[in-house]
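User: Reviewer 2 asked us to show a designed sequence for the structure in our supplementary figure. I'm pasting the structure tokens here. Could you produce the per-position amino acids so we can include them in the response letter?
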């Protein structure tokens, strides 16, 4: 099994990176959609359900499968022999940031449910601030895996 994981390592990493790009695209865009949902949807009748449809499709059809694929390929990389040196700092930093990114994904899902239940209480400004969370985490993760401090 470990020989097999070693032989497919470049493929696993390639698909991990593709999944990461897709997941990140959604994590960056969904909070932006929420900003406009909060600030603009009262201006035009029928706009709020259009936002909800776009947000729901982004979350369910792109972000959720991409998050699952990121985790699946990432864990295959973890189990590939010789890839992760647990005595180094970077895997722990990356692990903590990845857990925070996963929490952020679920936080967005809860906010979407609030919108569909008509009880959103987060302001556009707060969504703008939260939009920085995946940016900061992404910077730390990429530095951790590439620079390997
Ligand atoms: C979801 C759980 C994740 C796990 C378990 C995981 C695990 C791993 C592992 C073990 C590697 C292999 C490092 C190597 O080949 O030397 C890797 C590579 C990589 N990961 Fe992740 N990762 C996860 C999520 C993420 C996220 C969220 C990002 C970006 C925001 C990311 C970006 C990368 C990049 C860019 C590489 C390639 C680094 C290189 O070329 O050496 N990963 N990941």
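Assistant: Here is a per-position design you can include in the supplement:
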């Amino acid at each position: 099994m470990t020989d097999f994981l070693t032989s497919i390592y470049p493929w696993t990493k390639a698909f991990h990176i593709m999944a990461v790009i897709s997941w990140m695209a959604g994590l960056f865009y969904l909070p932006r959609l929420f900003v406009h949902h909060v600030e603009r949807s009262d201006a035009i009748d029928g706009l709020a359900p259009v936002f909800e449809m776009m947000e729901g499709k982004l979350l369910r059809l792109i972000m959720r499968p991409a998050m699952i694929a990121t985790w699946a390929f990432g864990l295959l990389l973890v189990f590939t022999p010789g890839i992760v040196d647990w005595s180094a700092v970077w895997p722990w930093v990356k692990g903590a940031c990845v857990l925070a990114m996963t929490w952020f994904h679920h936080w967005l899902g809860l906010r979407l449910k609030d919108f569909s239940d008509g009880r959103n209480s987060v302001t556009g400004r707060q969504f703008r601030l939260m939009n920085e969370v995946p940016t900061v985490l992404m910077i730390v993760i990429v530095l951790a895996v590439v620079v390997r401090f």
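For the response letter, you might also mention the following. The mean pLDDT is 97. Residues 3 and 81 are 8 Å apart (CA to CA).
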